[in-house]
Amino acid sequence: MRVVNGRCMGDLLGHFTCFNTHGQSTVDYLIANERLFNQILYFRVSEFVSTFSDCHCKISWEILAKYQITETQSNNLHAAPVNFRWTEDSPLKFQQALLSPDNQQKISSFLINDSDCSSEDINKKAQDLCDIFLSAAKISLVTPKKNKKGSRPQKKWFDSDLFKMRKNVISLGKIYSRYPKDPVIKGRYYKYFRIYNKCRKVKYKQFINSMLQKLDTLRVENPKQYWKLINDIQDSKKRKLLFTN
């Protein structure tokens, strides 16, 4: 087991956690095993607030969590209800849809069928009434159209290593935005940002060089594949321009 106080980013100086009339000391600790200690992103001792505690400071930390989502089958899931757009002429159209022969037959069956007041019968009657309203709505009302947003073009040279590095930089950036005056957090953020930016430029340069070498080879050996690759590059540039505009 390890004491995190004074050993993790955000509290490398080991701030005091207790203030009283006898002086100041460190009496509030965070203890973690070696495996969990490596997952702690930062540890911070907040300033003493008299309304929070009589003599203790608040300690906080952030842990890098790794988890795996497993798909489970459940029979208790229900489909989301259908949404309809309600306009000025919707009331009249909805009433006319209720007067259709099919819905009139359902309404008559609903009114004639006399059942007991058990919970199963009440649930069935409620479901039948909802089906009548839903049937009329599907005939008379319009469902809202889903907005189809263009997806960002996937960069072929942006591999999984760069994705992980960018994820770490974003995570450190969030911590830095919360504690902008902490020199340790600031230094670590800009260090990883420079490493990520340098690797990103190297990966892009390697990708361009490989594409040029491939074009030189295909121009002689396979002209058809050469022009196909040229067209793919031009199409990717057009998609990028459309996305940025």
Short key terms for the protein model shown above:
3 domains; two-stranded antiparallel sheet; 7 helices
Notes on the structure:
The strands form three sheets. A two-stranded antiparallel sheet has the order 1-4. Helix content is 52%, strand content 9%. It has three domains: 2-63, no CATH class; 90-140; 160-244, no CATH class. It is mainly alpha-helical.
Contiguous runs where pLDDT drops below 50 for at least 5 residues: 241-245
The number of distinct structural domains comes to: 3
- Bin the strand percentage: 5-15%
Any idea what the shape is? Answer: flat
**How do the helices and strands follow one another from N- to C-terminus?**
EEEEHEEHHHHHH
In DSSP terms (H or I, runs of 4 or more residues), the helix count works out at 7
Helix content: 40-55%
Count the beta strands: 6
Radius of gyration: 32 Å
**Largest β-sheet summary:** 2 strands, antiparallel
Structural class: mainly alpha
Quickly describe the structure.
The chain contains seven helices and six strands; from the N terminus they run E-E-E-E-H-E-E-H-H-H-H-H-H.
SSE diagram, text form:
Elements: E1 2-3, E2 18-20, E3 23-25, E4 31-32, H1 34-37, E5 40-45, E6 59-63, H2 90-98, H3 101-112, H4 119-140, H5 160-178, H6 183-221, H7 223-244
Antiparallel strand pairs: 1-4, 2-3, 5-6
Helix pairs in contact: 2-4, 3-4, 5-6, 6-7
